[in-house]
Amino acid sequence: MGGLKLVGRAVLTAALLCLIAVNWAGAKDTRASWLDAQEVLESPGPALACDDACDGGCDGACSGACATGSCTAFPAAAGMNLAVFVPNLKPGFEFTGGFLLLKPGADNLGFATITTFLPVQNPQWAVQTLNPDYQPGFTVGARYIRPCSGKDIRTNWEHLRTSDSTFVPVDDLNTQWISPFSQTGPSTSETANEVGIFHLKSAEGSVAFDYDMVNLDMGQTVNLGQSTQLRLFAGLSWVRLQQQLISTFYNNPDVDPVPPVIAPANPTLEYIQLSNTSTYTGAGPRLGLSTEHTLRRVFTFIGELSGAVLAGWQQPAEYSFAGVYEDAADIEQISAERVTQVVWTSDAKLGLGYTRLLGRSSILNLQSGFQAAIFINPFSTYETSTNVLPLDIGSLSTNSMRHTPSNFTLNGWYASCSVQW
Fold first, then answer.
1. Which of 191, 314, 357, 379 could form a disulfide bond with 406, CB atoms 3.0-4.6 angstroms apart?
2. pLDDT attached to residue 303
3. Residue 403 CB partners (closer than 8 Å, separation 6+)
């Protein structure tokens, strides 16, 4: 529920920004070389405030209304004329290619805990979390604009592959260890002071994301005044997401614990590893709007907001455990069947554009700005909750499990170039 409330606030904020941008439109549109023919839907006449004028005599703009007795006109658009019409967009095909620099995120990127057991009466725990960097991707798309209608059909594909890792050693070998969330102290089979995981002294975490999204929509463009264009669109979205989270904990049997901890060493164990891979594939309807507001001549301010409801298949993470020894490996796994899952998603863009005529029939358009997206609970995993035997024996030995869902987010920068002819 917290994630949905956060998304609702973000959508409301973006919608208000779009309305503000529309209401502040005041610059004169200079893109009229191919806007000769316009279908006017509504063009209010001069704003009249005639009541006082009729009471005290007719003059100026109210004289005609007073003469005919029609003193009932009210100011339009708060005293401003606002023509709403369908522009005659330049017809033809448009092809787009773009560069993405995006930072992925999820709710389940914590992979280890450092435990400091001294002083015994006040132990401390520090969660270690992966923080993915901005990484490159690409987008390609195409659009066809129908003549004399303001209508178009558009498709685009966004693609991103990321990989991040981190290595964390403990600061004090004698008073600290690092371990998975499922066991940060003695297991249920150990005594209070017996800690088999004491010899886990360093850990490595890695996460990889796969992201592919394809959109197909039909749009209708409407001008609000001479400077602002609003495109309303509806269509379909398809998405495939994957997350792989791996955590590895290295054994150091050469360190002796500080009393009162007892920790028998296992010199044959090299490391233990936990691996989770969750995927989601779905499709569904998508609705949205985009705006372009002319700033000065060939420069535009761009905003876009859309949302989709996707129905598809979710494969919960297959929790794989490996205890690796000098000459053997113990492999154990928690598996789960794929399930149907409905995922709500929203994305937004904010940027600047530059438009230039190329000869008499082609248009070059450059855009750059910020974009962000959120997917609600496309990933999930089943994990061990409490271990009966210490992990350092190389066995999972769980007596309870938990189910953990996770959101997926993207944010970062985009730059695109499109050519229309």
1. 379
2. 96
3. 316, 380, 381, 382
* pLDDT score, position 300: 94
For the chain (length 421 residues), average pLDDT per consecutive 10? 48 45 40 38 34 39 38 42 84 96 95 88 91 97 94 97 96 91 73 79 96 97 92 98 96 86 85 92 97 89 97 88 86 86 97 89 93 97 73 68 91 96 85
Q: For the purposes of burial, counting CB atoms within 10 Å of the CB of 400, is it exposed (0-12), middle (13-18) or buried (19 or more)?
A: exposed
Which residue's entry shows tokens 């009932």? 72
- Residue 141 token pair: 């798309």
What are the angstrom distances between the C-alpha of 34 and each of 37, 77, 84, 148, 298? Answer: 8, 27, 18, 10, 14
- β-pairing verdict for 339-358 and 362-387: antiparallel
Taking the CA atoms of 371, 377, 379 and 383 in sequence, report the sign of the dihedral they define. positive
Ordered strands of the 110-116 beta sheet? 124-129, 110-116, 176-179
Contact of 50 with 66, CB cutoff 8 Å? yes
Q: What is the pLDDT of residue 401?
A: 79
Environment class of residue 16 by beta-carbon count within 10 Å: exposed (0-12), middle (13-18) or buried (19+)?
A: exposed
- Is residue 294 within 8 A of residue 31, CB to CB? The reply is yes
The pLDDT, as a whole number, for residue 279 is 96
How is the chain split into domains, by residue range?
A: 2-43+83-420, 49-81
At which residue do the structure tokens 């149907």 appear? Answer: 340
Q: What sign does the dihedral 322-165-270-123 (CA atoms) show?
A: negative
